[in-house]
């Protein structure tokens, strides 16, 4: 599944998430599903793991819901 957001694309499979940020620098971030936390309200995906630490703010809760549905992770509300 591909989710388009204002900063680029999020490619989602059952096992991993890849985020590609548009622009000249062409940033790509990847994480296994086990390393992800989905934060509702703020609409943020965070990845924390062995040598891995990043977060991305999405445009809407709808996008977060789509990703949660695809990877089977509950959204945490803070």
Describe it for me?
This protein is 14% helix and 51% strand. With 78 residues, it is mostly beta strands. The strands form two sheets. Strands 1-2-3-4 form a four-stranded antiparallel sheet, covered by helices on one side. The N and C termini lie far apart (27 Å).
Query: Which percent bin holds the helix content?
Result: 10-25%
Assembly context of the chains: single chain
Query: Numbering strands along the chain, what is their spatial order in the largest sheet?
Result: 1-2-3-4
Strand content: over 45%
How far from one another are the termini? 27 Å
Structural class, from helix and strand content?
mainly beta
User: Biggest sheet, in brief?
Assistant: 4 strands, antiparallel
* Net shape: globular
Number of strands: 8
Element-level helix/strand string: EEEEEEEHE
pLDDT under 50 segments (min length 5)?
none
Q: What is the overall number of helices?
A: 1
Mean pLDDT, all residues: 96
Radius of gyration: 11 Å
Topology:
Layout: E1 2-5, E2 8-12, E3 16-21, E4 28-32, E5 36-40, E6 44-49, E7 52-57, H1 61-71, E8 75-77
Parallel strand pairs: 5-8
Antiparallel strand pairs: 1-2, 2-3, 3-4, 5-6, 6-7
Main attributes of the structure:
1 helix, 4-stranded antiparallel sheet, 4-stranded mixed sheet, mainly beta, 78 residues, globular, 8 strands, 14% helix
The gist of it:
This protein has 78 residues and is mostly beta strands. The protein has 1 helix and 8 strands.
């Amino acid at each position: 599944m591909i989710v388009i957001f204002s900063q680029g694309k999020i490619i989602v499979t059952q096992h991993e998430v890849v985020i590609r940020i548009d622009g000249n620098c062409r940033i790509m971030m990847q994480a296994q599903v086990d390393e992800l936390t989905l934060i509702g309200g703020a609409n943020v995906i965070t990845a924390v793991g062995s040598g891995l630490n990043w977060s991305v703010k999405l445009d809407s809760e709808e996008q977060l819901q789509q990703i949660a549905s695809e990877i089977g992770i509950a959204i945490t509300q803070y």
